[in-house]
Amino acid sequence: MIPVAANDVAFSSHAVLLTAFTLFQIAIYDRGSQTVSKITIAIVTGAWMIVAICVVIAIQTHSWLWLVSCFNMLQVSMTAIKYIPQAIMNFKRKSTTGFSIGNILLDLLGGLTNYGQMAVQSFDQHSSVNFFGNIGKTLLSLVSIFFDVLFIVQHYLLYPKKKPERSPSPEPVNHVSLVTSSQHV
Question: Fewer beta carbons under 10 A from the terminal one: N or C of the chain?
Fold first, then answer.
């Protein structure tokens, strides 16, 4: 049994559409002097090469489930690659200023509910195939939850926003009114 539910397909389709929309925006909006780094070009080129090799092997051997597993592992790798620079930058700056914690909280909620869904299905089916039958889904949740917890610890515990210092209250001073009432004139 392949433990892929309709919501898994909907989630993947949603992610592909949002990524395509983001890439479309990158293509049409002015980026100023920003360029794509050589490291990014190397990573993307390597990912496309892996995809091409896996597709060729899958076509020759008719191993379509193996091809999906390759894509899952690529997705897990790209997720880790996506999170690592932010974690390092937060550590180096000792700050999460400019970092949106809201999306991280939502991502953590998604990862935890994903595990909840797999646990309920496993309990219902009296099998652990939901955890081990789709290892890409399990690993993606583990990687996401790990980095989400790391970012939450960085944001709230290690590098919380510093509250602005209040200056001491000035001593009361007699103020003379600059505007006088027309009744006193």
Answer: C
Q: CA 151, 157, 159 angle in degrees (round to 5)?
A: 75
- Dihedral (CA of 6, 3, 117, 109) sign: negative
Given a cut of 60, whether residue 149 has pLDDT beyond it is: yes
Residue type, 154: Q
Helix, strand, coil in percent for the chain, rounding step 5: 70, 0, 30
* 135-152 vs 64-93: helix crossing angle, rounded to 10: 10
Alpha-helix residue ranges (DSSP H) falling in 62-99: 64-93
3-state helix/strand/coil string of 117-134: HHHHHHHHHCCCHHHHCC
Q: What is the C-alpha separation between 3 and 130, in angstroms, rounded? A: 5
Report the candidate in 140, 122, 120 with the shortest Cα–Cα distance to residue 130: 122
Largest CA distance in the chain: 101
Over residues 69-122, the pLDDT tens digits come to: 898 899 899 999 999 999 999 999 999 988 889 999 999 998 899 888 888 888
- Is the pTM value of this prediction over 0.85? no
